[in-house]
Structure prediction request, 207 residues.
Amino acid sequence: MATNWELSGDYFENCNCNVVCPCLISPAPPLTSRPSQGVCDVALAFHIDHGNYGAVALDGLNLALVAHTPGPMADGNWTIAIYIDERATDEQAAALGAVFGGAEGGPMAAFAPLIATNLGVKKVPISYRVTGKSRSAEIPGIMNMSVEPLPSLRENEEIWASAGHPIAPDRLALAVGRAGSTFTDHGMHWDNSGKNGHYAPISWSNH
Prediction:
């Protein structure tokens, strides 16, 4: 029987696509458009404000997930790696690995059938910062990433879109051209400076 879990917090991502990431505007079914560069290199960072996996509390923990796809995301053959906050206990790390690997329902379960290679989980120091409307995250020696909202005449200075993104289906703040990430690990290397990005609050559960 599946363990009930829920979490809420903040997330942002950056990929190597140009403005705007074709995945966000794919015709049905989703994720079928070809990435701007032919392949997709994407990093996603998460901060959990409040969460639990059964009786295991997840409050305050950070996590990052990186993925490479050799073509349209819907075609599968993804390679992923997961990085979990070194402050997590073994129980918390196992819970986060299950949730973010898609084995326990929720948004990430939609991606699980597309994953061909899972490079595993590492416990590492992960910083996650929100400064005004900017976000940044770092795994020393492995990943640096950040996003800023696009300039907007709107009162809140952000451009929000209902993009139907599986991770944040209600709305995303677009940060296209004001995002970037560098990543080096598992034989993968990229620099996505000045590429597509966005961020959003998240509220997930499997019940």
The CA atoms of residues 160 and 173 lie 4 Å apart.
